[in-house]
Design goal:
single chain; Beta-lactamase Inhibitory Protein, Chain:B, domain 1; 3 domains; two-stranded antiparallel sheet; about 55% helix
């Protein structure tokens, strides 16, 4: 069955949960709280089991050449590590911290590739506005004059900015735009409060009483359901297994238009 554009995006976003836990230590607090007493490698293994959509051939087929190279490199190291099942939880395995660190270089590269595909670009809205503006101008009789003026102004402005940057030693405009991408998005306190009310072990009905009616599941797996509630101030997602919530996520940088 062919995946829709939205399903493709969510299929590529799922593995990012496990990879962020692996390569960004600051993101491990919440999972550690949910799985007290387990090592980081065991928690990572559990996240891989829950979110690794690349087990499905339809998801692997979405990868481009660069992403496939990073995926193959990461998978080779992952399968090479000496994972050992935990006696009290045989469905979870772990390795030593030193072995887990061997996944960091390839995991970092794979996460960067996937986030480029799943996160909205900071410059995209400006390009959309520019294209919309040009389309309106083309629809009128002044299209040739406007096009020439815009090209001339943009050329002159770019040359002046670049010249000023070189003379004053200021960072280039593109470096500033890249830094703007790193700004932490504002978090809506109402959405965050609803997210904090969701707890592991809740039923889907309990979550719907907090967030409203759920749409269709984005998961391609029968035993696991993946639901997303979208708003202009962020996405809230939960993974439901055997009728109970097993994990949740809040992405304030996303909106209903993404």
């Amino acid at each position: 069955m062919a995946l829709t554009t939205e399903q493709q995006q969510m299929a590529l976003a799922g593995p990012c949960f496990a990879l962020r836990f692996l390569v960004r230590p600051e993101s491990r607090s919440a999972p550690r709280e949910q799985m007290k007493g387990f090592s980081d490698s065991a928690i990572f293994h559990r996240w891989m089991d829950l979110c690794w959509t690349f087990n499905e051939p339809e998801t692997r087929a979405l990868l481009n050449a660069e992403e496939r190279k990073c995926f193959d490199e990461f998978t080779a190291i992952l399968e090479w590590l000496p994972w050992k099942p935990i006696e009290s939880h045989p469905h979870i395995s772990d390795v030593s911290d030193s072995d887990l660190k061997k996944l960091l270089p390839s995991g970092t590269r794979l996460l960067a590739c996937l986030e480029r595909r799943t996160r909205p670009s900071a410059q995209r809205p400006w390009w959309r506005k520019l294209v919309s503006f040009l389309r309106r101008m083309v629809a009128r009789h002044m299209k040739y004059v406007v096009a020439v003026v815009l090209v001339g102004l943009c050329t002159i402005a770019s040359w002046l900015i670049l010249r000023a940057d070189i003379q004053t030693g200021r960072p280039h405009v593109w470096e500033v735009l890249q830094d703007e991408k790193k700004v932490t998005p504002l978090i809506d306190p109402i959405i965050k409060a609803k997210y904090d009310r969701i707890a592991e072990g809740m039923t889907l009905g309990d979550v719907e009483e907090i967030l409203g009616k759920a749409g269709p599941s984005y998961s391609s797996q029968i035993e696991r359901e993946y639901y997303i509630w979208k708003s202009r101030n962020g996405w809230i997602s939960v993974i439901v297994e055997k009728g109970k919530v097993i994990t949740k996520d809040f992405r304030p940088e996303m909106s209903v238009d993404d």
